[in-house]
């Protein structure tokens, strides 16, 4: 395939492909997420798999999740609500320990999820209202410090239309395209050009349908009936990116679930996330899925490795 797909790739002078062989530098993966808990619901088993393989993994969390609702009844208590920012910070610390990843806060304020007709204005000073360069600057700094070969983020609709997820997409693409350009974002470190950018495809219709069918085949009640109805109702309103890359990671589904449970304010242990038994999941859909949105290395699609084309081309 060509070196650039789905749009412009940013400045790239080939230096990343010309390192001398024989070094001990590990592969590096950066996953950029909007809130604490997003890293555990999207791509967590992938990250755990790569950590086990010796890849260095860094989660970048754009906001503190301060405006997130408490979705676990057991945690819906006054003292938790009164200190929700600190609580979510502690939950994130536990989740990153379970996944074995590093983690970095960008320090922006959660925008909340606006509801109503018409939608209310977003709160002043929130992440979604930050100018693009202001919101991107700390991510460029993180990219230049960590030097990832691969970045993960959301599609242009955020995976779902939370304003922080949409903003996360915008700053991730901007950072991917700017971090290698020495003229852009001065003062944030030496230039570094990541080689591949992927969008999460965690909740594709094909995966949801496969899990739904597997539950029915096993004689179990599927939790996905309403989801499938929404897929039909939304039609073309949903982003429809091709799945280019399926990463086998079923052996790490249990680690993913433990990381999810660490976010106790957001995840009800008796809730939706844990209805489908792990053995059913492993049989029906043993991968986590991605769309390759940018590539500066040649790779053949479909892929089963986020580092396809990088392992072969870069001497590490």
UniProtKB/TrEMBL annotation:
Binds 1 zinc ion per subunit. Monomer. Belongs to the MshB deacetylase family. Mca subfamily. Its cofactor is Zn(2+). It catalyses: mycothiol S-conjugate + H2O = an N-acetyl-L-cysteine-S-conjugate + 1D-myo-inositol 2-amino-2-deoxy-alpha-D-glucopyranoside. InterPro entries: GlcNAc_PI_deacetylase-related, LmbE-like_dom_sf, Mca. Keywords: Hydrolase, Metal-binding, Zinc. Its EC number is 3.5.1.115. A mycothiol (MSH, N-acetylcysteinyl-glucosaminyl-inositol) S-conjugate amidase, it recycles conjugated MSH to the N-acetyl cysteine conjugate (AcCys S-conjugate, a mercapturic acid) and the MSH precursor. Involved in MSH-dependent detoxification of a number of alkylating agents and antibiotics. It comes from the Bacteria. GO terms for biological process: mycothiol metabolic process; mycothiol-dependent detoxification. NCBIfam families: mycothiol_Mca. One of its GO terms (molecular function) is zinc ion binding. This is Mycothiol S-conjugate amidase. It holds the Pfam family PIG-L. It is an enzyme of class 3 (hydrolase). HAMAP family: Mca. Zn(2+) binds at residues 35, 38, 165.
């Amino acid at each position: 395939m060509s070196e650039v797909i789905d749009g412009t790739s940013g400045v790239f002078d080939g230096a990343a492909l010309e390192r001398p062989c024989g070094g001990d530098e590990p592969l590096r993966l950066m996953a950029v997420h909007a809130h604490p808990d997003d890293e555990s619901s999207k791509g967590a088993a992938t990250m755990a798999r790569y950590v086990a393989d010796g890849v260095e993994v860094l989660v970048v969390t754009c906001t503190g999740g301060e405006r997130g609702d408490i979705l676990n009844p057991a945690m819906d208590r006054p003292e938790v609500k009164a200190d929700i920012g600190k609580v979510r910070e502690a939950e994130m610390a536990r989740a990153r320990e379970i996944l074995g990843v590093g983690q970095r806060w960008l320090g922006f304020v959660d925008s909340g999820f606006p509801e109503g007709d018409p939608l209310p204005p977003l709160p002043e000073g929130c992440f979604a209202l930050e100018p693009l360069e202001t919101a991107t600057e700390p991510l460029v700094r993180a990219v230049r410090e960590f030097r990832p070969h691969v970045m993960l983020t959301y599609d242009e609709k955020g995976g779902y239309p939370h304003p922080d997820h949409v903003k996360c997409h915008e700053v991730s693409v901007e950072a991917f395209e700017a971090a290698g350009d020495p003229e852009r974002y001065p003062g944030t470190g030496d230039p570094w050009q990541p080689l591949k950018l992927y969008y999460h495809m965690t909740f594709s219709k094909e995966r949801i349908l496969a899990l739904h069918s597997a539950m029915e085949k096993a004689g179990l009640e599927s939790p996905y009936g309403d989801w499938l109805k929404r897929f039909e109702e939304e039609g073309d309103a949903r982003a429809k990116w091709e799945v280019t890359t399926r990463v086998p990671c079923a052996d790490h589904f249990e680690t993913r679930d433990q990381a999810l449970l660490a976010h106790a304010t957001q995840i009800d242990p008796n809730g939706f996330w844990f209805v489908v038994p792990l053995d059913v999941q492993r049989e029906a859909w043993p991968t986590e899925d991605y769309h390759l949105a940018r590539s500066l290395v040649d790779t053949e699609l479909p892929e089963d490795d986020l580092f396809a084309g990088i392992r072969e081309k870069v001497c590490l």
